[in-house]
Design a protein that fits this description.
Blueprint: E1 2-5, E2 8-10, H1 17-27, E3 36-43, E4 50-56, E5 59-60, H2 62-65, E6 72-81, H3 82-86, H4 92-101, H5 115-130, H6 142-145, E7 155-160, E8 165-172, H7 175-195, E9 208-209, H8 213-248, E10 256-261, E11 263-270, E12 273-280, E13 282-284, E14 290-293, E15 301-306, E16 315-317, H9 326-332, H10 335-341, H11 365-371, E17 376-389
Parallel strand pairs: 2-3
Antiparallel strand pairs: 1-2, 3-4, 4-12, 5-9, 6-8, 6-10, 7-8, 7-17, 11-12, 13-16, 14-15, 15-17
């Protein structure tokens, strides 16, 4: 850990000057208590740094939560082994079965609701009614978005651990409806700070003050979006389990299940004060708490247990963290490079949409995990068998 300033502590051994400068600005906000914790996977983000943990008193910065509210990870360990899967021959049918069951890519949703998604939508409708808002005001298609993956770094993977036990591992969030909610409240916060003549070091650090109508509306809708994200991942996991069962020809047993957000805000107590803790690209690493830290496409991923480091605000990294922007990656790497790095993994090698997800566009996950040695304990290291992504 490195003390950058009185209100900024960093666990990132790899962080460029722009990332540190941005984190310093966020840490300078007057309501930060006691400090911002910069995670090992930190990189430049909108307003606040991705991979930062921001504790605030009586205020929340919507951009510090991020636009994919509730984005996170789900994993299921099964009774199957990698040998069970490979004994059937090619894994391509499994990849296609998952891709057929889950709508992939930005803007692609379900044509209709499945029985399981209907039940989950009913839960969300009841929660929205309790929160006194209509999600349809942000996205009329929100019901059909439940159980869809998205694009970019979102994925569904079939992996195996050090004992060759098969895991299903997926990454997604609150889809278009969560994005619309986030963008709306970021604009509201910016307008209010302008109206109140509040000077800001960065317009994207506009905040909402506890006790105001605008703050209460944001928190209600934020919590709804976080629950949408959790149920969205649960729906996709159900479909992925069914696809795996169909491929393997046996019922899939869920020997272990883990779910964790890594873009969210929650009320927690730190250093003697109750704060609004925004984890923008970070997981809850409270002592004994299970967590998931994915590597980049083609790299290892980790199942971890939190160590409850109080100085790190009981948090840990959420993944590898980008080293190169998507534009830079497309200029720097080739499709042949990516194919070489994905050797031995079943993936959509015919698509050119994934070049910006090249493993070297991210920080080395081994270094990220080394930096996180006092934040989490590694329980399992996973290697990928099948990768499913949206273009």
């Amino acid at each position: 850990m490195e003390k950058i300033s009185k209100t900024l502590l960093s666990w990132a051994s790899i962080a460029d000057d722009a990332t540190i400068a941005q984190a310093k600005v966020t840490a300078s906000m007057p309501f930060v208590h006691p400090h911002v914790a910069l995670m090992p996977d930190a990189h430049l983000g909108k307003g606040a740094t991705v991979g930062s943990v921001i504790p605030t008193l009586r205020a929340v910065i919507p951009a510090a939560v991020g636009v994919d509210i509730g984005c996170g990870m789900d994993a299921v360990r099964t009774q199957l082994t990698s040998a069970d899967l490979r004994s059937t021959g090619s894994l391509a049918p499994l990849r296609r079965a998952i891709a057929d069951a889950v709508p992939l890519s930005a803007g692609r949703y379900n044509a209709s609701l499945t029985a399981s998604s209907q039940a989950r939508v009913a839960q969300l409708e009841a929660l929205a009614e309790k929160a006194a808002f209509d999600p349809g005001q942000h996205a009329g298609s929100w019901r059909l978005q439940l159980g869809s993956l998205g694009s970019g770094n979102h994925f569904i993977e079939v992996s195996a651990d050090e004992e060759e036990r098969v895991w299903l591992f997926l990454h997604s969030g609150s889809r278009g409806v969560g994005n619309k909610i986030a963008v709306h409240h970021i604009k509201v916060a910016a307008a209010l700070c302008e109206q109140w003549w509040i000077p800001l070091p960065d317009r994207d650090l506009a905040y909402l003050v506890e006790g105001t109508d605008e703050f209460c509306a944001y928190i209600r809708q934020l919590r709804w979006a976080q629950e949408f994200a959790r149920l969205n991942r649960a729906e996709m996991m159900d479909r992925s389990v069914d696809a795996l069962a169909g491929f393997a020809g046996v019922d899939v047993e869920r020997a272990q299940e883990i779910s964790c957000h890594h873009n969210y805000t929650a009320q927690e107590e730190h250093f003697g004060r109750e704060v609004w803790l925004s984890r923008k690209g970070a997981i809850d690493a409270s002592a004994g708490r299970p967590g998931l830290i994915p590597g980049s496409m083609g790299a290892a991923s980790y199942v971890v247990t939190g160590l409850g480091n109080p100085v790190a605000l009981r948090s840990a990294p959420h993944g590898a963290g980008r080293s190169f922007s998507r534009t830079q990656a497309r200029k720097r790497f080739t499709q042949a490079d990516l194919a070489e790095r994905m050797a031995g993994i079943e993936w959509d090698s015919g698509s050119k949409a994934f070049l910006d997800e090249h493993p070297d566009a991210y920080k080395p996950i081994d270094q990220v995990m080394a930096d996180a040695a006092d934040l989490v304990e590694v329980r399992h290291t996973l290697h990928q068998l099948v990768n499913v992504k949206g273009d």
